[in-house]
Specification:
The chain is of the alpha/beta class. It has 9 helices and 6 strands. α3 crosses α4 and α5 packs antiparallel against α6. The longest helix has 29 residues. The chain binds D-malate. D-malate binds next to loops. It holds the Pfam family Abhydrolase_6. InterPro entries: AB_hydrolase_1, AB_hydrolase_fold, AB_hydrolase_sf.
């Protein structure tokens, strides 16, 4: 019912304001599909043409970036990436800075993996071949604030996205992330309005990784979202939408 109402809303706004709205391209994280951004897709439809990139097919972060760029709206667009989507967004900034009018990095990092993180990824890929459900079960407490462990809708959504994508996508995405390059030395070259946002309790990409990006990106702002873990877009959608709305207001059309 909510989805149906939102669709009507999106269609209505698209007819009324279709010429003046900027394009906003959203990039999901590990084992996420477009549903991870559902609150933003609906909530920002009155101020942007929102679409969600597919990061499930390519085998490298550079390949994901190239694939999204080849399917992106013609011309320039604002770009927001969540976690793995943030790694891809930073790669897109390297590949096609002239097409990106604004950059939002949410619950992510510019750094490459530590050796331990990389080993953990390969171990998870190995386990997922025989125990995919268990691997997904173990991801959830790392992604969410403990207060959200009992949120049945949220936990079911994470399971549903993961199960629809499956073990092969998990393996591809983990290998791609393990091999990603260090984006930190490129941050000072970013020239578009930039927002860096992080759940206060994000245990996967903690606040310090966001603070150091803000220190490097000229003019970037930092928003720390209370009562949220790593999945701020789902855990605190209203606060995230408010931050994204303010950022979009400063992005050139
Ligand atoms: C994600 O949510 O995309 C991943 O947890 C990021 C990562 O594992 O580095």
């Amino acid at each position: 019912m909510i989805c149906a109402l939102n669709n009507v809303f999106i269609n209505k706004v698209a007819v009324v304001n279709s010429h003046s709205l900027p394009h906003l391209l959203l990039l999901p994280g590990l084992l996420h599909d477009a549903r991870v951004w559902q609150h933003q897709t609906a909530g920002l439809a009155n101020i942007a043409h929102v679409s969600v990139g597919d990061l499930t097919k390519a085998t490298s972060i550079a390949g994901m970036a190239a694939s999204v760029l080849s399917r992106a709206p013609a011309g320039a667009f604002a770009l927001a990436g969540l976690s793995m989507g943030g790694y891809v967004a930073l790669e897109m900034m390297r590949q096609a800075p002239e097409r990106i009018t604004g950059l939002a990095l949410l619950d992510t990092s510019a750094r490459t993996d530590t050796p331990t993180t990389r080993e953990n990824r390969y171990a998870a890929v190995q386990s997922a071949q025989t125990h995919f459900q268990q691997v997904v079960d173990e991801l959830i407490p790392k992604q969410l604030l403990p207060a959200h462990f009992d949120d049945v809708w949220l936990v079911n959504l994470i399971h549903s996205m993961a199960n629809d994508l499956g073990e092969q996508v998990f393996s591809r995405q983990q290998h791609a992330m393990a091999k990603r390059i260090n984006s930190f030395p490129f941050l000072h070259l970013i020239r578009c309005p930039s927002l860096v946002l992080c759940g206060r309790e994000d245990g996967i990409t903690p606040i310090g990784l966001h603070q150091e990006m803000v220190n490097e990106i000229p003019g970037a702002g930092l928003i720390i979202v209370n009562d949220s873990g790593h999945l701020s877009v789902l855990e605190q959608p209203l606060r995230v939408n408010e931050a994204l709305s303010q950022w979009l207001a400063g992005v050139a059309r």
